[in-house]
Design brief:
The complex is a heterodimer of chains A (about 300) and B (about 190).
Chain A: E1 3-7, H1 18-30, E2 33-37, H2 46-49, H3 54-70, E3 75-77, H4 81-96, H5 98-110, E4 120-122, H6 124-132, H7 134-140, E5 150-153, H8 173-180, H9 199-202, H10 204-220, E6 225-228, H11 231-239, H12 241-248, E7 256-258, H13 259-266, H14 283-300
Parallel strand pairs in A: 1-2, 1-3, 3-4, 5-6, 6-7
Chain B: H1 20-27, H2 43-47, H3 58-67, H4 70-75, H5 78-81, H6 87-91, H7 98-111, H8 120-135, H9 140-151, H10 155-168
The chains are: A alpha/beta (about 300), B mainly alpha (about 190).
């Protein structure tokens, strides 16, 4: 029996995070989970919109919740940590502040949309852990892992401040899911340290410093790659390694992947279907781990 | 090592310069209720990944705010450096939603034009806001481009390599997307 979910990819998953969208879709298809993209979804507002105007920020993000309330499936999956947080925060504030609830209600009515009741905001990682379960992941994982151990990086907004199913200070779902798929992980103390968010674009020196600390610690722990749950974390850690090499003089070149990419790989998806060619850093390692063993497999058949 | 003292710059604050009424108004805003329950323990500043770059740490911002030092708070770089990682909020023993308090200050700083000019962070937020209101979705490329043009166009030269990498890997979307029906959003705060 396939399970069905509404799907809210968010703006990042259409540009810098396109590999996340590709790999989540591929992974869910392999597990017989169906994603139904919300029609005409809009930007969640992220961290920036809220910095300018609060009232309409909640209406903006509530519109997506309302679309999901209208849809057939009220479990709304969003892979992006910022979208996840903003949608959850909207539900939280609407529930606790009547003034905000009124504003949102009026905004939705003006758009001819129903109230946002009964929607459950969910993250793909939590779905894998709770709905699919470690046993099924273990059985579905057909490829042996040829790569080095991995550092699981959660970043901020998936676990803070709304953390429904994992432990907030020391989340472990990603490690458990990867382990079930036969992928070894390392102890990683900086797993919920901030990557700097949009600071890499606004004050590069500060943003890149935060990224450097995370990359360096992962390497020091013996990780061959970092795996993330957030498109902005992935972009920050992946895209600025050349700049960081230049400013620090250190030979940092480590792949930064999505958890959905390595899991999809373990379950037999193509490297291309998972968007593995879209990584910027650690290209050699990625080739060695994925493209080469894919060729080997084909030779055996 | 002798520290050079600057006698012309006053480092203490006088009560009469504060506006306690403003502090009271802040504390009535959704999410900011905890303002007066702060213990000044410094857990927020200790856990903040950006406090070392701030002019005031989050603890001092809360301290200044609850006394009513409006101008110092709204003029600070601190409120803009906050990257919304929520580390302070989850570590606060008084459960103050410090991140949301910072958002409240950001909005007031924009409304009253008190933010540091040509500072990239508030400009990025404004451009993001404008693009989303116009198109219903954001475009990373457009927002960053407009931010650079408004603050320091030369920064574009330091971005070319990243841009090229993104273009090569199919991750840079140059065209921005516009919804068929862009949601109508009443402007209330701004």
């Amino acid at each position: 029996m396939p399970q069905d979910y509404s799907y809210f990819p968010g703006c990042s998953l259409q540009s810098t995070g396109v590999a996340y969208d590709e790999s989540v879709r591929a992974l869910f298809a392999l597990l017989d989970l169906k994603l139904h993209e919300l029609p005409e979804w809009n930007c969640c507002g992220a961290t920036s919109y809220m910095s300018i105007d609060e009232g309409s920020a909640f209406v903006l993000s509530a519109r997506n919740l309302s679309l999901a309330a209208q849809a057939k499936h009220r479990d709304l999956v969003t892979p992006c940590s910022a979208c996840y947080l903003v949608l959850k925060k909207t539900q939280d504030y609407v529930e606790h502040y009547p003034a905000i609830a009124n504003k949102v209600q009026q905004g939705l009515q003006a758009e001819g949309l129903p109230p946002l009741n009964g929607v459950q905001v969910r993250h793909p990682l939590e779905i894998l852990y709770n709905d699919v379960g470690l046993d099924r992941i273990k059985h579905a994982s057909v490829r042996p892992w040829r790569g080095a151990p991995i550092a699981c990086y959660y970043g901020c907004q998936l676990v803070r401040p709304y953390c429904d199913s994992d432990q907030q200070q020391n989340p472990t779902h990603m490690e458990e899911v990867l382990k079930a798929a036969g992928i070894p992980t390392v102890d990683f103390a900086l797993k919920t340290k901030c990557c700097g968010g949009s600071l890499t674009g606004t004050i590069p020196a500060v943003g890149q410093r935060l990224n450097y600390l995370i990359l360096k610690e992962a390497i020091r722990k013996g990780a061959g790659a970092i795996v993330t749950v957030c498109p902005l974390c992935q972009y920050n850690l992946d895209a600025y390694q050349a700049d960081i090499r230049k400013s620090t003089g250190e030979a940092i070149d480590i792949p930064v992947l999505y958890f959905s990419q390595v899991l999809g790989w373990a379950m037999g998806a193509d490297a291309k279907a998972l968007g593995l060619q879209r990584s910027i850093a650690g290209k050699q390692t990625i080739k060695q781990w994925f493209a080469a063993s894919e060729r080997e497999e084909k030779a055996h058949v | 090592m002798a520290t050079k003292l600057n006698f012309s710059e006053r480092t203490i604050k006088f009560q009469r310069e504060a506006d306690p009424e403003w502090a009271r108004q802040v504390s009535e805003h959704p999410g900011c209720e905890g303002l007066f329950s702060c213990l000044q323990c410094g857990s927020c500043t200790g856990t903040c990944p950006l406090s070392i770059y701030m002019d005031y740490g989050p603890r001092r911002i809360i301290g200044l705010a609850r006394e009513g030092f409006r101008k110092e708070v709204l003029n600070s770089q601190t409120i803009w450096l906050c990257a919304s990682c929520y580390s302070c909020a989850v570590h606060c023993p008084q459960q103050i939603h410090i991140t949301d308090v910072m958002y409240n200050f950001k909005r007031e700083a924009i409304r009253s034009h008190l933010y540091p000019k040509r500072f990239a962070i508030p400009v990025l937020a404004q451009e993001f806001y404008n693009v989303v209101r116009r198109n219903g979705r954001t475009s990373e490329f457009l927002v960053v481009l407009r931010m650079a043009l408004r603050t320091n166009p030369l920064i574009l030269f330091t971005m070319w390599r990243t841009g090229l990498d993104l273009l090569r890997t199919g991750r840079l979307k140059l065209m921005s997307e516009k919804l068929k029906h862009v949601p109508f959003l009443p402007k209330e705060d701004a």
